[in-house]
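Hi V.,

You were right to ask for the full record rather than a summary. Here it is.
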Amino acid sequence: GQIGGYWWKGKIDSLNLEDRYFCDLKTTKDIHAANWIKQGDRSVKTNFVEAYGYYMQMAIYRELIRQTFDIDCIPLMFVISKQQP
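Predicted structure:
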């Protein structure tokens, strides 16, 4: 699809058009670890979803699905932690 005049391609892990949702699988070292992002001239503590740009990725996938199938889907993330139990 095209977003903002640029062509995009996505690889969605699981898509359910009938129930209008899609799933993305992620792994991370520690779900609750502190992550830092730059906001202006300072660093701000945030979660790994924001730190790695996953909010934007889900928004792009959602728009590509809408363009391709004319269906608005809810994004879901399934996250596995690599921490020791």
